[in-house]
Amino acid sequence: MDYTAQTAASSAQNVIRILEGRWKLVILFQLFGSNVRRFSELERAIPEVSQKMLIQQLRQLELDGVVARTVYPQVPPKVEYRLTEWGQSLCPVLDKLLSWAETAPVEVRERLIDAEQRPE
Question: What does the record give under GO molecular function (predicted)?
């Protein structure tokens, strides 16, 4: 597809909306590398997120085709999450984004990138 500045910006914004949400990237990094995780494993791996928010973010990622959910018909219920092939293809994209962020000027890096690591 040939993009204009307007259509490229619009398409990029739509894609970024898929990744918006405080916990989505954390979830993705937990699932990269063909990791299959049960819901309870994700809860333990991301203790700061509430169960409600984790469910909401996983559902959105599933609706957007990034995460696949498998429900096993057993008691107690067993639910597993994994990245779809398309979701797994985000790994190199996010690696590039991290590399790009590391090249930010010091004042930008301190203000934006390292801000979450500083105590409030």
Answer: DNA binding
